[in-house]
Specification:
The chain is α/β, with parallel strands linked by helices. The protein has one domain (2-124). It is 36% helix and 10% strand. The protein is built from five helices and three strands, in the order E-H-H-H-E-H-E-H. It has helices at residues 12-23, 42-52, 54-64, 79-88, 138-148; strands at 2-4, 70-75, 92-98. The protein has a three-stranded parallel β-sheet with strand order 1-2-3, covered by helices on one side. Strand 2 (70-75), helix 4 and strand 3 (92-98) form a beta-alpha-beta unit. Helix 3 crosses helix 4 (79-88). The longest helix has 12 residues, at 12-23. The protein starts with a strand and ends in a 6-residue tail after the last helix. It comes from Motilibacter rhizosphaerae. This is Dienelactone hydrolase. Residues 122-154 are annotated as: Disordered. InterPro entries: AB_hydrolase_fold.
Length: 154
């Protein structure tokens, strides 16, 4: 497995994730797209990634990936080289592209929070349940229409 880091760099949290995967029996390589630099805030890490440019991030990821069959895993920014390698390497075994578009407060109580130190906020919002979708499947649409007396085709 090749695990590419997020915009903050190859942080302790990324190393902890790799160690957890190794503890489960995986062979994990963690290329460093930032040549040793890490950033305390997401904003600083994103600014650095923008300075490098996506082509440079992709080139660094491609150059750092070992030439062997692998599953390519990319966390946020790391999804860029992970996806490209999974699509272009004939020996690619697959890809896991992890992207979390929220600011982290929704998973503060989960085990994922341990891998993103400083990016989660313990707040009331962390314990807020998301509303159930009003419509979850075609079957529920039909059931709702039947209860309301509307024909199923309308």
């Amino acid at each position: 497995m090749v695990l590419f880091h997020h915009a903050q760099g190859l942080t302790r949290g990324v190393h902890a994730l790799a160690d957890a995967l190794r503890a489960g029996g995986a062979q994990v390589t963690t290329p460093d797209l930032y040549a040793g630099r890490t950033f305390a805030t997401l904003e600083d890490g994103v600014a650095h990634a923008e300075e490098l440019g996506s082509e440079e991030v992709l080139a660094r990821g491609t150059a750092a990936a070992p030439e062997r069959p692998a599953v390519y895993v990319g966390v946020s920014l790391g999804a860029l080289p992970a996806q490209a390698l999974a699509q272009t390497r004939p020996d690619a075994l697959g890809a896991v592209l992890v992207s979390y578009p929220c600011d982290g407060h929704l998973f503060v109580d989960s085990g994922l929070a341990a891998f993103v130190p400083g990016q989660h906020r313990p707040a009331a919002a962390a314990r807020t349940r998301l509303p159930r979708p009003a419509v979850t499947s075609p079957q529920s649409v039909r059931a709702r229409r039947m209860r309301s007396g509307r024909p199923s085709g309308s």
